[in-house]
Amino acid sequence: MKYFLLMGLLSAAVTSKANQANDTIPFWTISYGKTVILTGNVNSSSPGVHELVVKPGEIKDVTVSFSYDSGQPGASLLTVREGKEELRTIEQDPVIGAYFRVPVRELIGTHQSNVRYQLDFYYTDDRGQKDRKLGTITFIFK
Length: 142
Hints:
Helix content is 15%, strand content 46%. The strands form two sheets. The chain has a five-stranded mixed β-sheet, with no helix packed on it. A four-stranded antiparallel β-sheet has the order 2-1-4-7, with no helix packed on it. 19% of the residues are buried. The chain is an alpha+beta fold. Strand 5 (76-82) and strand 6 form a beta hairpin. The chain starts with a helix and ends with a strand. It has one domain (22-141): Immunoglobulin-like.
């Protein structure tokens, strides 16, 4: 009798867990070259900020990925702005999903010493994220 009671309770526990939805928190990473410099998730209170000191001839691309544990969105965009000026909007990679390569050298133009460029990164997708600011990177050329 104890065996049947134990099996019944165990079965009920497994069944109740199987009916619960996965608790996922979408998150993102921003990398400069191969180094992750900013991370965040939808519960982050404020977007990350990072300063990079760069030599004019050694500029690397920025990569941004936005991930859902339950699969990638059907459509997503990354918008790069400098102040109020929109520099570029990039659509998601059709194979990888919400993964974006930002060609920094093309966006900031001149590469003179003692110049600063502050780029803001915004993400939008078909799952409810609308113009979410992911972070700010300040490029300081020395």
